[in-house]
TrEMBL record:
PROSITE patterns: ENOYL_COA_HYDRATASE. The keyword Cell membrane does not apply. It comes from the Bacteria. SUPFAM superfamilies: ClpP/crotonase (SSF52096). PANTHER family: ENOYL-COA HYDRATASE-RELATED, ETHYLMALONYL-COA DECARBOXYLASE. Belongs to the enoyl-CoA hydratase/isomerase family. This is Ethylmalonyl-CoA decarboxylase. It catalyses: (2R)-ethylmalonyl-CoA + H(+) = butanoyl-CoA + CO2; (2S)-ethylmalonyl-CoA + H(+) = butanoyl-CoA + CO2; (S)-methylmalonyl-CoA + H(+) = propanoyl-CoA + CO2. Its main location: cytoplasm. GO terms for biological process: fatty acid beta-oxidation. The lineage of its organism: Bacteria, Bacillati, Bacillota, Bacilli, Bacillales.
Amino acid sequence: MNKGMDKLAYKIDYIDGILTFTIDREEKRNAVNDEVMNGFKEIVTTIYENKDVRFLIITGAGAKAFCSGGDLSEFHKLQTEKDAFGMLSKMGTILYEIATLPVPTIALINGTAVGGGCEIATACDFRLVAKDAKCGFIQGTLGITSGWGGGTYLLESGLKQDFALKMLVDSSTYDADKLYEIGWATNIFEGSKEVALENFIQHMRKIHPSVHHAYKEIKLRSWKEKNMFERVMEEIKLCAKLWESDEHIEAVNRFLNKSNK
Ligand SMILES: CC[C@@H](C(=O)O)C(=O)SCCNC(=O)CCNC(=O)[C@H](O)C(C)(C)COP(=O)(O)OP(=O)(O)OC[C@H]1O[C@@H](n2cnc3c(N)ncnc32)[C@H](O)[C@@H]1OP(=O)(O)O
């Protein structure tokens, strides 16, 4: 790192066909700011330009959090529905691009995944969840709904409809065992996340990439038929409307004031 320069908010590693994107803001529980969004955009471009990439892994730095959602201190400055829609639709579009990549995507959930963090994980094809991690669509506690399209991915994820909708309306966190029981977690792991990942992909690795691309195409064809992108954008509009509400503004102020004490 150059002297005087801030460290990047994310890391991108590439080893042997595996591209790993790590949100690197441990001190903010890996909250997504504008720089992280741009990093996500960068990996989408990298994957389309580099045919050697076979898997995308998304994870968070440290052991505490996978991702705590949008950076409340940064995005709280957005005051109008229009401004909120600008930020939400930027990330929502990037997340849709990630969700529609031709390679398998894996959320390696090393710790808490809440709010937008839970949306990022839900947009991935698979979720490997650390035994002590808690995850949830907690947006309701802030007086808003999921704002990056995660509600739509969840409702299309094949989870029993009542479980999926309950996760959204509950707005609370679930532990790893419960997440596995309802089908949101693909696997639960204890110990090293790298080992958990290796165990998970060891069979997939032996399969030719064209087979993976074909299966993703089948999945994504059905999404296109269901107008997923349009539905994601409608979801984002609903969140942008609630963004201006007193309830949202007060809830975020409460969180930020508590954190600053
Ligand atoms: C905007 C998009 C929207 C969507 O579309 O879904 C959302 O994502 S809304 C949801 C936003 N996320 C949250 O409401 C989660 C807020 N964070 C927490 O509830 C907790 O921090 C935690 C994730 C459960 C972790 O708790 P803990 O381990 O006890 O850590 P602290 O609470 O002490 O936090 C440490 C440090 O990190 C800062 N922090 C945490 N999350 C965020 C965040 N989302 N944005 C900005 N900053 C965040 C927190 O303020 C602390 O900072 P300092 O006080 O400076 O140490």
